[in-house]
Amino acid sequence: MESGMNRWTNRAMVTAALAVAVMSGTAFAQTAYKVEAKWNIGGDGSWDYLTVDSAAHRLYIAHQTKVDVVDLTTGKEIGAVIGLTRCHGVVISPDGKTGFVSDGGANVVVAFDLANFAQTDRIPAGTNPDGMAFEPVTGTLWAFNGTSKNATVIDVKTHKVIGTVALPGKPEFPVADGSGTVFVNIEDANSVVRIDAKSMKPTATWKLASCESPSGQAIDTAGSRLFAVCDGKKMSVTDAKTGKSLATPSIGDGPDATAYDARTGLAFSSNEDGTLTIIDVKNPGYKVIQTLPTMDGARTMQMDHSTGKIYLVSAELKKVPGAKRPSAAPGTFTVLVVGRD
Questions:
Q1: Are residues 296 and 277 in the same domain?
Q2: Which residue(s) pair with 122 in the sheet?
Q3: Beta bridge mates, 50
Q4: How many helices (H) and strands (E) does the chain have?
Q5: In order along the chain (341 residues), what is the average pLDDT of each group of 10 residues?
Q6: Which end of the chain has the lower number of beta carbons within 10 A, N or C?
Q7: Burial (CB count within 10 angstroms: exposed 0-12, middle 13-18, buried 19+), residue 21
Q8: In a shared domain, residues 165 and 79
Q9: Residue 74 belongs to domain with CATH number
Q10: Is 32 found in the same domain as 63?
């Protein structure tokens, strides 16, 4: 996954219509989502995945050469994992003592101490490790390597590489179903691969309907559904057992992350155009019930499933003459907190 800044393109300003949330029904209007707070974290450079540690009330943000650690109670940065090259994904071990971050620039997965954020190990991976997922049945960490098009499987307790899984294209974001299966989007093949974690072998590859360049992915384990966000302003909803397409609701432009809230039956897409799309997936039709204005470039997010709050990041982006991509104004890196009453 590329950062919110690196994949930002010069788009027209969000239309005035998006200044008012798009909702259906009076009941929902009483509990509409809103941006509750903005926390200035500061610092320079691009960013990537966010990870919430609900038990410790912390937010981990991959911020180019470091991982910012933010206290979710105060909104203040309490530390950082430093000495990284180009970080992407963060996974918190179930033991509550160790974290892991994929360093795509160094082709390693870095283990760090959750008490002081110091690096404790560097585990070799494939080329450009990016998205990661913990698989609880096997106790393994899966690091998906974008350039070498494979996955590195790591024993969480020993930090040893126990396998490598070849993939049919460039992997993007993975999810685990908690029962021994891992799913990963294949960005350059517009598909999703199902992998058996015990055998470390792919068991199916499914094309994603109406989906170009899938990136973020979320899973509804109880309902056996996968939610993938795609270019072309579409979310592809897929049956996780059969690979059948269930729906392709419309979302905002330039999505890079999605989330699913089992308590509310809502799915979310964070979009580069400065919107958060909220979809009712518990009822037939998969209707968009709200389009919340956020911040230009805020295309990565994470949900705290213990509170239902959503965290997004971006910065003030400025176009540089002669450059294809904008730059982030120094000191403007910001976390947005989204929730509802």
A1: yes
A2: 110
A3: 61
A4: 1, 30
A5: 42 38 43 96 91 98 97 97 97 96 98 98 98 98 98 98 98 98 98 98 97 97 98 98 98 97 98 97 96 96 97 91 79 96 82
A6: C
A7: middle
A8: yes
A9: 2.130.10.10
A10: no
Q: Does residue 271 contact residue 255 with C-beta atoms inside 8 Å?
A: yes
User: Which tokens belong to 193?
Assistant: 């691969």
Shared domain for 165 and 273, answered yes or no, is no
Q: What residues contact 109, with CB distance under 8 A and at least 6 apart?
A: 100, 101, 102, 103, 122, 123, 125, 129, 132, 141, 143, 152, 154
Is 282 found in the same domain as 333?
A: yes
Residue 308 inside a domain? The answer is yes
pTM above threshold 0.85: yes
Residue 266 and residue 156 share a domain: no
Q: Are residues 290 and 234 in the same domain?
A: yes
- C-alpha dihedral sign at 121, 123, 128, 130: negative
Q: Cβ distance 183 to 171 under 8 Å?
A: no
Dihedral sign from CA coordinates of 48, 50, 51, 57: positive
For 112, the token pair is: 């760090």
58 inside domain = yes
84: its two tokens = 């990284």
